Amino acid sequence: MRTDLIKTAVVFLAFIAGGALAQNQSKVTLSGDIPAGGIRLVNRPGTFFIPDSLAADSARIVSYYQNQGWLDCRLSVSSTSKKGLTIIKYRLFKGERYRLAFAPIIGCPDDSIATASKSIVDFYANQFASSATIEKIADDILRLCARAGYPYCAVIPGGFRKKAGSILEISIVINPGPRVLVKRVEFDGTRNINPGFLSYYSGLRIPFVYSIDLMNSIVWRLNRAHFLKGVGSPKLRYIDIPENGIVYVPIMEMPPVILNGALGYSSGDKSFYGIFNGAVSNILGGGRQFTFSVSRKDKVSRKLRFNYIEPLFLRRPLALELTAYQDDRDSLYIETGGQAGITITSSISFEYGLALGISRIAPESYGRSIITNKKRQLISFHFVSDTRDNSANPLNGDYLRLEASFFNEISRGDSMFSSSSKVYRTAAIDYQKSIAVGLSSSIYGGVYARGDFSGLNSADRQFAVGGFGSLRGYGQDIFYVMRAAIFTVEYRLLTGREGRAYIFADMGFLQKGLVSKKIENKNGFGIGILAPTRSGAATIELAAPSDEGVSAIKLHFGFKAGF
Hints:
The protein is α+β, with helices and mostly antiparallel strands. The protein contains six helices and 29 strands. The protein has four domains: 92 residues, membrane protein fhac (Ubiquitin-like (UB roll)); 77 residues, Ubiquitin-like (UB roll) (Roll); 73 residues, membrane protein fhac (Ubiquitin-like (UB roll)), CATH 3.10.20; 305 residues, Porin (Beta Barrel), CATH 2.40.160.
């Protein structure tokens, strides 16, 4: 009996408390000067009214408008409840909106930082005062000091003073902290490469004064090295005291053996076509690389090439490249030759190169009536500018390569041809541009143009285009031309640092030039995917030539693997 009485009392008290709580849980609506939608209020429309949060909501509203420059903002608030509805009425008095002005900056460590800091504050002068703008000014000056070698710098905006004409004057104090002398650099991730070689290759001369600009230039240079797969952000630490620094640079080496290429299959003559490359990288820990390349257009045409790169020639920032090659074209001729070239990188994005070469051309069975034995001497110059954020899969940036070549050709006379000596020249341009569209997609455009402008047409001066990496939708090296211009447009959806899906269109203008100067138009279009794999990456493209239609669709398969 006693237990039943206790249960009844508990239920009755819960009923009374629930009724009282229900009376306080009235819905909220706002009136008057309704706050901006960007302010997150506790008592907002459609929620249950919480009286204790009125003061906090009022403070949020006042803080929001003061941070937008209305420093004299005031707010009054009242609330009334009726039939389960609480009406909160705001009255907002913004006052004048203040604009920024700046007192002379205090604490600049040198004149160059003082001048640059003044340019920053002058840019923001007379803009509306807001907390976001003030934070941006402090951050810009902080980055400026860090780039100049003050990584422990602090920028303190303060001394806010209201002045006539709705002006808010701010005093900015710079505490530069110590400059850091880097006494050691550690490359995290080295396996085959000598760390001393990396320091020398990146241009570091230890000890050096730390600066973000210097670190960025080092990362940029290493990111473009053929013997590295990737470079992370450097981390600064100190030894014993902040003035003595150590920098950690994470790197990822290229695998010792690299295989890549593009393959296809022709059902017409039951043969494979394409290109295959192999490389042995980081030889003797010094970034040296030996590569070979084999390509086939059909059963009677192939190219063979050997290449060696010495990235620090004579302990100088010069890359020495040695090349030996042999081209066999359609039983017309065989060209055998070699080249030696030197490349210098003058800045983080500019490169200059010079190459000298010699080759010998011998006609084969079908070429003896149109080609004689020749010896060819070459001198070539090139210039490269590369500002891409990721050379393998860029989201933003440009790539430009210009090349000019001059040939001296000596023909040996026979029963059909007289001896002669001729000089001619060729030029080439390769331009690529990527523009980010959103966070993970980009528009890629490119043009590759090359030509012989001497007017001396000959089959052994033609070059091959077509296929993977050239004019897609056609066989590999299917067209031999004297001049060509290939335009490419792609829409890319980046799926990661090394992956993307894309649609593309290639437009080629080709001039064979042997008999006629007619320009032929060849276009290809399709879809593709670049996918990273455990050992490298794979590319699959479906492309169709416009003059043959979808029925002649080609499958281009490219791969890259490291072991």
